[in-house]
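[SOLVED] Need 3D model of a two-part complex

Original post:
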Amino acid sequence: MRRSLRAVFLLLSLTLIGMILDGCWSRREIEELALIMAAALDAEGENQVRLSAFIINPREIGGGQPMGAGGGGGTRMPGEIVTAVADNFAEATRRLEEHIPRRVFWAHNRVIILGDGLARRGLQSLDWFSRDRQMRLDTVVVLTEGEARRVLDLPPGIELNPGRIITGILNSHVILKVELKDLFAMWQARGDNPVVPRVVLLSPDEHSGSKLQGREGRPGGGGEGGEGREAPPAQAAPAAVRFDGAGVFKDDKLVGYLDHLETLGTMWLRGEVREGVITFNCPAHPEGQVAVRFYRSQTKVKPHVEGDKIRFLVKITAEGDLTEHTCDDSLKDPAQVRAMEEALRREVEKRAEAALDKAQKELKADIFGFGEVLHRQEPKFWKQVQDHWNEIFAGVEVKVEPRMEVRRVGMTYASVEAIRGNTGGKKTSPGGR
Amino acid sequence: MSRSREEGFIGPWQGAILLWFSELPTALLFLPALIVSRAQQDAWMSVVLAIVFTLPLALLLGWLLYRFPGRTLFQVAETVLGKILGKAMTLFYVLAFVQWNAIVLREFGEFLVAAVMPETPLIVFTVTLMVLAVYAARNGLEVIARSAQFILPLMVSFFLIVLVLATPKMSLRNLFPLLEGGLGPLLLGAFITLGSTGEIIVISVVGAFLQQPEGVKRSLILGLAGILFFLVLGVMGGVLVFGACEAGRLTFPAFSLARVISIGNFLERIEVLFMAIWVGGIFIKVTLNLYIAALGLATAADLREYRPLCAPLAALVVVLSVWLFDNLTGVLFYLEQVLPVWALLWQWTVPAALALTAVIRKVEGSRT
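Solution:
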C-alpha cells in the first residue's frame, strides 16, 4: 500500500516537474522582446509626454553572428528609435507596442534622458520609472537642453547604442553621475535638491575634426576631464555627446543650469568627486602649467548653529599625482611641492565658490545637501528650518577648507625647460641628487 | 497520553535554524519597508527593541519546555487544561497556524507576481509550493530540519554577498540622525516587528524533539541572535543604500537592493539568485507551519499519524491564502495594522495564560 502510494507520488512529482521545466508562465523568449537601451523623455503639448526609446537590434549586437534567420552581414543600424505620445509614460510604452512587432522590455535600459521641457514641468511623471517592476533604480539620469529625443540619434561608434555610450562616459568617474535612486532621494529629502548632469550634442566637426584646445583660451586654466567647454550645442545630426554642466532642480522642477566649473564645485561640495585632473598655472612662473591628477578625495561638512545663525564648514581633502609640469622649478624641493598644493587648494576653492555663488545668489536652492547634513547633525534645529530651508540656505555662511596633497611627481623630477634654463646650477643640478 | 507523534530528534543547531526560517524569509522581504516607514533611519533600533521585547516570550516558551520536557505545546495544553479545554486550545492553535501559513503563502505569491511574473496567476505559485510542502512535511521534522540546514548556507552566503556587493552604493550618513523622532516611532516600528518575532512560538512544538533540555536553551539563544543579526542587517542595508525616505517608499527594499548591485558592469542583475534562495527559505517556513498544524490536529484528534492530515490542511491553506486578501495593499495593511495585535494574542498571551494555569494547578510534566 505504502509502496504503491510512493509510486503514485513519484509519478505525480515527475509530471509536475515536467510542467515546470517546460518554462515559466510569463516567459518571453529573447526574440520576442524589444530591449530598450536608452529612453528619452520629453514634454509634449500642454501636459502630455513623449517617450522615445532606443531599441537594440539583436542581430547587430551578436558580434557578427546572426541570431535569427535573415540577419547577418552588412552595415545595418544597431537599433531603431521609436516614439510615442501619451498622457504618461506607462501609457506611452503601451503606445510604442502598437507600432513595434515585439513586447517592450525595460530591464536593460541604461539611461534616462530628460528633455528640459519636461524637467521644467517637474519630475512627477517619473513615478512609473520607480514603480514598474522592470525598472532598475540604478539607471543613470541625464538632462539635455531642448529635445531629449535628439540624443538618441547618436551614431554607433565604439559602442553601438546611446545607452552604452552615455554610461561608458559616466563610468570614467570624472563626471557627476546620478542614478534614478539618487534622483529620487535628492528630490524627497527636504534638505537637498536634485542636480542632474547635462549632455550637450557635438557636431561631427567638434567631435573629431578640428580639435578644440580648451586650455589655450582660458586664463588660469581650470579644465577637467580633457576637452574644452565653449562649444555651442550642435543643431545638425550629432556625432557625439559631451557632459557639460548640470541642471539644477528646485524640489522637482528644473530652475537653471550650472556651468562646467560650477558643476565641479558642486561635486566637490557634495563629496562626489572620485578622480579628475586639475590644471593651473605655476605658482611662481605663470607662463608654465601644472596638471594634477587626483584620486581619493573626501568631503566633510560640519554645520555650526549659534542661535539662529547657521554656518557650514566644508573640509575637502584630496590627494593626487603631478602629471604635467612645465615650469622651471625643480620638484626635488619639498617647498615647491607645497607651493603646488597651495595653488591646487586655491583651484578647488575657486570651483566651490563658483558653485556656492550660483546656488545661493542666483538659484536659491540647496544643491549640496547641506540641509540633510544639518538634519543629521542638528535634528532639533532642523525641524525649525526645514519648511523654508532653500530661502535660509541662500543666506547661510559657508566656509570651504580644501587640503590637497601632491603625493608623487611622476617619472621625471623637472621639466626640460628647468634643466635647460638652470644649467648654471641656480636651483637644480641635473646630474646630482 | 500518547507520546510524541514522531520519533524524530533534532539538534540544538537545527532548532535554531528552524527558528530563523520560521521568521526571516518573509520578514526580510516585507518588514523593512513597514518598519522604515515608521521608524525611518532608526529602523534597526526598532528591530533590536523588538528582539528585546521577545526575550520574555522566549523565556516563557523555554520554561514551558523545561517543565514539560519532550511535550509539544499541544500535549502540554491537554495536560494542563484537561481534555476538553486542552483540545480546544490545540484546535485554536491549528487554526492560527493554518491562517498564518496562508498569509505566508500569500506573501510568497504576491511577491513573485508583483516583482517577477505579473501575468502568472497567483494560484500557480501557491499550489506548486504547497504540493512540495506537503511532500516535505509528510517526511517529518528531521527532514525539514535537514533541508533547512542544506538551504541555510546558500541563503546566508547569498544574503551576505548581496550586502557586501552593495557596499559601494551605501553611505553611512543615511543612518543619521539617531533617534530623530524620539521614542514613539521607534516603539511603533518595534511593535510591527513583534508580529514577526513572535514566530519563535514554533519552538514550543519543535522544542519537544530537541535532544536534551539544554538544547532548547541553545536553540532559543542562537535562534534569537540569528534573527537579530539578519533582520538588523536586512533593515540597515535598505536604509544605507536608498536612504530612509526612499527605503520606506519602496515595497521590497531588500529586493531592490539586490537589483541595484553592479560591480564593474559585469557582476550585476543578480536578483534572480536572491529570489531562488528566497523561495527556498519560504518553502521551509511554509513546510514547518504545515507540519505543526498537522501535528496539532493529530494530537487533538488522538491520531497516531499526522501524515494523512498534511494534504487536507494544505488545501485549506491554499484556499485561505486566496480568500483572505484582495490585493497586496491588503496584505501589507494586515502585516502592519492587524498582525501585531493578533500575534500578541496567540503568540504571547495564550502561552502565558497556559503557563500561569500550570503554575496555579501545580501540573508538572513527568521527567523522563
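Edit: Residues 334-363 of chain A form the longest helix (30 residues).
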